[in-house]
Amino acid sequence: MSVLIEQLQQSLDFIRTRCNKQAAIGIILGSGLSNLANQIVVEQEFPYQDIPHFPLSTVEGHTGRLIFGSLGGVPVWVMAGRFHFYEGYSAQQVAYPVRVMGMLGVQTLLLSNAAGGVNPAFQVGDLMIIRDHISLFQVNPLLGKNEDVLGTRFPDMSEPYNKQLIQLVKKLAAANSIQLHEGVYLGVTGPTFETRAEYKLIHVLGGDAVGMSTVQETIAAVHAGMKVFAISVITDLGIREEENTITHEEVLQAAAAAEPKLTLLFTQLVQQLPA
């Protein structure tokens, strides 16, 4: 047994001895969006520092709890707070909790993040369904020896974000008069926000939004055979005329303002998925 599989098994055993309930849906909440966890009827929660081999959240807006409970009456596993490459973690460590979720039985993974708007049509507070991503600027979490029990050596990434889930969320948004964009998310390492020249390059490459998370989690989830849906809250604008700066505090405020719409969509989405 490899070191990684042994560590994953120890994480799984710790959780399972305390909570042996099943949920086929997992949710990872991004910057400023962890209050969605308040809508969950919590049955069990685990601070990250208590779970063997779990990284620890170090970023404001990421509370650091693995939660089992129900959202809209549907059982879910929820990560309130995620990990980032820029915190000093390896790509494999960033992906580690996704793999634990897979071992817990999660088959559909819902992701949210705060992102910078690159598409000139976007405004702060908009929601963008991630249709596809560009991962060339992030380290792939599958580098190194492949663990066949986790997934195939060369996973297909032609549809990283499930088309059926995308169509379902678009219908839910229309029924609730919620405006949605759809676009390509470009992942970067961070922690710096992009320069103006970098935003222009991202736009030329086909990116509609840019952020420091999600891509490595998605790759690990697809590797494990999960269906993935992801959505970005546009919290700042990279393509802009005025000479303003971007702060993390403003990102958190914009994310919090958009959170009610995201909470509604996620709640209604899980109610229509196999539990």
Q: Key features?
A:
24% strand; Rossmann fold; 5-stranded mixed barrel; 275 residues; alpha/beta
At CATH level 2, the architecture is 3-Layer(aba) Sandwich
Q: Widest sheet: strand order?
A: 5-8-7-6-9
Note the quaternary state here.
single chain
| Radius of gyration from CA coordinates | 18 Å
Number of domains: 1
CATH superfamily: Nucleoside phosphorylase domain
- Kindly, what is the distance between the CA atoms of the first and last residues, rounded to a whole number of angstroms? 31 Å
Mean pLDDT across residues: 91
Q: Can you tell me the overall shape?
A: globular
Q: What's the total helix number?
A: 6
Tell me about the biggest sheet?
5 strands, mixed, barrel
Q: Which stretches are low in confidence, meaning pLDDT under 50 for 5 or more residues running?
A: none
Order of helical and strand elements:
HEEEEHEEHEHEHEH
Could you name the CATH class? Alpha Beta
Structural class: alpha/beta
DSSP, total strands: 9
CATH fold-level assignment: Rossmann fold
Kindly state the percentage of residues in helix. Answer: 25-40%
Query: What share of the residues does DSSP label as strand, in percent?
Result: 15-25%
Overall description:
The chain is α/β, with parallel strands linked by helices and 275 residues long. It has a single domain, classed as 3-Layer(aba) Sandwich (Rossmann fold), CATH 3.40.50.1580. It is 30% helix and 24% strand. It has 6 helices and 9 strands; from the N terminus they run αββββαββαβαβαβα. The chain has helices at 3-16, 91-103, 163-175, 196-205, 215-223, 248-270; strands at 25-29, 41-47, 65-71, 74-80, 108-117, 127-134, 180-187, 209-211, 227-237. The protein has a 5-stranded mixed beta barrel, surrounded by 4 helices. α3 (163-175) links the parallel β6 (127-134) and β7. The two termini are 31 Å apart.
